[in-house]
Amino acid sequence: MRVYIHIPFCASKCPYCAFGSFTDFSLVRQYFDALNKDLNHQLKEFLGTKKHIKSIFFGGGTPSVVGVKFYEKIMDLLLSYCAKNAEITFEANPNSAKLEWLKSIKNLGANRISFGTQSFDEKKLEFLGRTHSSADTFKAIENALRAGFERINVDFIYGTKLDSKKLLSSELEGIKKLKNLGVKHISAYALTLEQNTPFYAHKNYAKEAPILANFMIKGLKSLGFLQYEISNFAQIGYECEHNLGYWMGDEYIGVGAFSVGCVGKTRLYAHSLIENYINEPLFRKSEYLSDDEWSDERLLLGLRSKLGVDEKYIKNKEILEFLEKDKKILRENGRVFNKNFLLADELACVLC
Ligand SMILES: C[S@@+](CC[C@H](N)C(=O)[O-])C[C@H]1O[C@@H](n2cnc3c(N)ncnc32)[C@H](O)[C@@H]1O
Ligand code: SF4
Hints:
The chain is globular. It has helices at residues 28-47, 72-79, 99-108, 122-127, 134-147, 165-181, 209-222, 241-248, 274-279, 291-303, 317-325, 344-351; strands spanning 2-7, 53-60, 82-92, 112-118, 151-158, 185-190, 226-229, 232-234, 252-255, 260-263, 266-269, 285-288, 309-310, 329-332, 335-338. The mean pLDDT is 96. α2 (72-79) links the parallel β2 and β3. The chain has 2 domains: 2-247, TIM Barrel (Alpha-Beta Barrel); 307-352, no CATH class. By secondary structure, the chain is an alpha/beta fold. The strands form 3 sheets. It has a 9-stranded mixed sheet, sandwiched between helices. α6 runs parallel beside α7 (209-222). The chain starts with a strand and ends with a helix. Belongs to the anaerobic coproporphyrinogen-III oxidase family. HemW subfamily. This is Heme chaperone HemW. Keywords: 4Fe-4S, Chaperone, Cytoplasm, Heme, Iron, Iron-sulfur, Metal-binding, S-adenosyl-L-methionine. Residues 1-226 form the Radical SAM core domain. Pfam families: Radical_SAM.
């Protein structure tokens, strides 16, 4: 079992982002009271007395904008259900995660930290509506290392209209410096224009986005970060255990407003308005996935990552044989592995 906990607060709202978050902090206390009730209820219902949480992910929003004292009760409770060496990640923003916050969250049991950096270029940071500088990122990494974190991820966005091979080369120079400091995981996301965001109406992506994607992926690989999913790169042994769990189809509970869980083949959606969640933290809308929907999901997630996909989820065996002959995929022990994650969507389309 895995646990996702959503913290829907951010210091400011980035114009490209569709994640559920608000800049009004007046309901933080009530939100955490509701979060505790929700978590207590779900742990009893889905875990009983078993200690088998393999990973926990506090995502957002920006978990680091909330004081550590709010996490104490939740972490106490979660740790009593954790398997040995469970991975516990907190997402953080370079300007809100100060040394004291990082030390205290580590003391509570966090063992992985993920910073939303997005870029080292000051113009691109401004364009993305970020409120930190590249110096803030280096300071935050230094602090995370001083606090004792060994597993650090840094998020980047590329493919915006400001990006070019030249700009990405300088991002890769910065990433090389992060690597020298001890960062072992990088997430590099191609910009998605999300509906209902200020970016959606504008052509804010680079015209040559596919070329830039190949360039960024090659650059990260040459720095020694192995691509284990379309947007995720790590040194061996530093992959994100929690995300691997999602892609393998493990069960997970979602706690908090906007959260989604999946138990068996049932998806569970919490309220997405904070006020509604505070009033009804246990409310869930459920959606049962049919066998076809489940198998399509396994196919797509497997083709986007190094995990590959069980052949039983592939309906079009004729195309499978053709793609194998054409060396687009690898077949081994009843599993199919994609050689180019950028083609995952197209391959999933023809194989389902
Ligand atoms: C929930 S945010 C986490 C971190 C924290 N809130 C921050 O931004 O510093 C997760 C990551 O998703 C990525 N992201 C968000 N919106 C995106 C978009 N429209 N296109 C591509 N990546 C996006 C960003 O890299 C971001 O750091
Ligand atoms: S990218 Fe991060 S900081 Fe920006 S709005 Fe989204 S969740 Fe908040």
